[in-house]
């Protein structure tokens, strides 16, 4: 029982760390562009949405190796 609880806590910690890296990475991605990604997505720019989705998918693949 102790082992299961430890694994659950470990998963939650890695999830929180992963979410923090997602947010930091998105902020870095936004700062490197000459335009505001949030505005572009709000204006229904499909290319900006696909770029952000690709970034999140790539980060998910990288973080999946952690678990």
What does this structure look like?
This protein has 67 residues and is mainly α. The chain has one domain. The protein is 82% helix and 0% strand. It has three helices and no strands. The chain has helices spanning 2-31, 37-42, 46-64. It is elongated and about 50 Å long.
Helix fraction, binned, reads over 70%
Q: Give the helices and strands as they follow along the chain.
A: HHH
- Overall mean pLDDT stands at 82
Main β-sheet: number of strands, strand sense, barrel status?
A: none
Radius of gyration: 16 Å
Quaternary: single chain
How many distinct domains?
1
* Shape assignment: elongated
Strand coverage percent: under 5%
Counting helices, strands and paired strands, the structural category is: mainly alpha
Distance from first to last alpha carbon: 20 Å
Query: Helical segment tally?
Result: 3
How many E-type strands? 0
Which spans of ≥5 residues are poorly predicted at pLDDT below 50?
A: none
Keywords:
67 residues, 82% helix, mainly alpha
Short description:
The chain contains three helices and no strands. With 67 residues, it is mostly helical.
Topology:
Elements: H1 2-31, H2 37-42, H3 46-64
């Amino acid at each position: 029982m102790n082992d299961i609880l430890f694994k659950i806590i470990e998963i939650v910690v890695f999830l929180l760390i992963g979410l923090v890296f997602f947010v930091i990475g998105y902020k870095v991605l936004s700062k490197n562009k000459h335009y505001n990604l949030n505005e572009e997505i709000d204006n229904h720019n499909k290319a900006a949405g696909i770029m952000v989705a690709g970034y999140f998918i790539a980060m998910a693949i990288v973080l999946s190796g952690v678990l």
